[in-house]
Write a structure and sequence with these properties.
About 35% of the residues lie in helices and about 20% in strands. It is an alpha+beta fold. Strand 1 and strand 2 (about 10) form a beta hairpin. The longest helix has about 50 residues, at about 30-80. It is rod-shaped, with a radius of gyration of 43 Å.
């Protein structure tokens, strides 16, 4: 009598046994073999999914690296080809190419502007005011103009107008005038129109005044001689003994 080893069943005829095998055990494999096969299929599926995940991670990483590289390359190209405003556009030399000092004062409607605030101190390396002082311009690069100095403070000056860092503009009109004065070493005060374009020169004195004042002697006298001291061409004031 045929007996199924898998099911432990007996069959009356060979034909019934064969039919049982076809219905229940078509593959002809044992339970252990089937179990092993399913386990192997599961492991292969897991391995395939892991490989797909690894490929995706690699592709993502390559994409990120490529994006970073392109970003760095783009920034480098931008920096390389960007016009250097201190050298190309303005003609300003490298910091340290000179060291000069000039005195200055600015008056708006008779009131002297105060630049002693930290907000105005050392705003640029090539030219600045420093140490809480607002009497002396310190120039550290060749080619620096008076206009450029005021630009570093947030001001804008030209032959007809002066605009402050608070976006207040003062232009010459029938009621008030914008005047520029320069005093070269050993010379008298001179009224000029192109002060913004003048190169800052050692021991120069500059006066910018806007208003309707006609006697500007007091304003001119308020421009100090500190530039001479800063340039080592005059005695420094001794500190008081406490």
């Amino acid at each position: 009598m045929p007996r199924c080893e898998e099911c432990s069943r007996d069959f009356g005829t060979e034909e019934a046994f064969m039919q049982h095998n076809r219905d229940r055990h078509e593959s002809g494999q044992t339970r252990h073999e089937i179990k092993q096969m399913k386990k192997q299929e599961k492991e292969e599926k897991k391995k395939t999914e892991h490989e797909k995940s690894s490929r995706k991670r690699k592709i993502r990483m390559i994409t990120i690296i490529a994006a970073v590289f392109l970003g760095i390359a783009g920034m480098a190209a931008f920096v390389i080809y960007l016009p250097k405003p201190d050298v190309v556009s303005t003609g300003i030399g490298p910091v340290g190419s000179t060291h000069q000092h000039a005195d200055f004062k600015v008056y708006i409607n008779g009131k002297q502007l105060d630049f002693t605030s930290p907000a105005y101190q050392v705003r640029a390396r090539e030219v600045h005011i420093e140490g809480g002082d607002d009497d002396v311009i310190h120039k550290h690069a060749t080619g620096v103009t008076v206009g450029h100095f005021f630009k570093t403070l947030g001001f804008s000056i030209n032959s007809t107008c002066i605009a402050t860092d608070k976006n207040v503009q003062h232009c010459g009109n029938e009621n008030a005038a914008l005047k520029y004065f320069i005093k070269k070493e050993g010379k008298d005060w001179e009224s000029i129109n192109d002060l913004p374009n003048r190169d800052i020169t050692d021991l120069d004195k500059y006066l910018i005044t806007y208003g309707n004042e006609t006697d500007l002697g007091m304003q001119q006298d308020s421009v100090t001689d500190k530039a001479r001291i800063e340039s080592g061409k005059g005695p420094r004031q001794s500190m008081p003994i406490s």
